[in-house]
Amino acid sequence: MITELKIQYFKAFENVTARGLDRLNAFVGRNNAGKSSVLHALDMAGLALRWNDWNRFQLKLKVEDLFWDKGDFALAFATDTGQTVKISAANRRQPIVDLGGARKEDFDSILILPDSGLGLLNRRPASPHEVFNYIQDRNYNNINALDILQAISFYAKRQERGVAQAEYDSLIEQVRAFFPELESVVSDRTEDLFATLE
Q1: How far apart, in whole angstroms, are the C-alpha atoms of residue 174 and residue 185?
Q2: Among residues 68, 38, 43, 67, which one has the least CA distance to residue 53?
Q3: Whether domain 1-114 has CATH 3.40.50.720
Q4: Distance of alpha carbon 128 from alpha carbon 116, whole angstroms
Q5: Cβ atoms < 10 Å from Cβ of 3
Q6: Does the global pTM surpass 0.85?
Q7: In degrees rounded to 5, what are phi and psi of residue 54?
Q8: Which residues in the chain are classed under CATH 3.40.50.300?
Q9: Mean pLDDT to the nearest integer, 89-95
Q10: Whether the Cβ atoms of residue 21 and residue 3 lie closer than 8 Å to each other
Q11: What span, in angstroms and rounded, lies between the C-alpha atoms of 91 and 67?
Q12: 3-state secondary structure the chain
């Protein structure tokens, strides 16, 4: 499990560190605060770990356009087992991976990229079971963050699929910490089974 993440010279970030990460984490912030950039950097790390290749990056951008001219891209993360994995760029193209004693097989993560808005046009309700299957298949075209939050809520209440109520509550508290004026945050479904956030 990743407990700390450090990103250097990537998109809008010159040097940023996120500490105190847990099994489930929410990145909350206003528009253009860098939430997607954190996810994109993690996606780049996943591509380097899995395929040693950045050409599978989902967004239609040139990989070199994500990096700064004044410094080399680097991403490092610490795990709960005490290992530090470092991923950097050689010539702004080829990833260099230092597993710090870990094995690639030790890393199995789920990354949810933001919905571009186009998915709302074709959105249909998905059951919590479908949502988790989509996540396991890395198929994010048919689900969005609300579907995922609702599925986490569903399974947390039942203590199923490895999701504990405390983890869901922690996600909600992360949102409330950023928006202290909120009295409560509730993930639910409409009568047509669409996931909602109130």
Answers
A1: 11
A2: 43
A3: no
A4: 22
A5: 16
A6: no
A7: -100, 0
A8: 1-114
A9: 70
A10: yes
A11: 10
A12: CEEEEEEEEECCEEEEEEECCCCCCCCCCCCCCCHHHHHHHHHHHHHHHHHCCCCCCCCCCCHHHHECCCCCCEEEEEECCCCEEEEEEECCCEEEEECCCCCHHHCCCCCCCCCCCHHHHHCCCCCHHHHHHHHHCCCCCCCCHHHHHHHHHHHHHHCCCCCCHHHHHHHHHHHHHHCCCCCCCCEEECCCCCEEEC
Q: Give the model confidence (pLDDT) of 162-196 as tens digits.
A: 889 998 888 888 878 777 888 888 877 777 777 77
Q: Tell the residue number behind the tokens 């954190």, with chain if given.
A: 38
pLDDT digits (tens, 9 = 90+) for 93-152: 678 888 887 777 666 555 544 455 545 455 677 888 998 888 777 676 677 778 888 888
Cα–Cα distance for residue pair 145/24, rounded to 1 Å: 13
Interatomic CA distance for residues 10 and 63, integer angstroms: 10
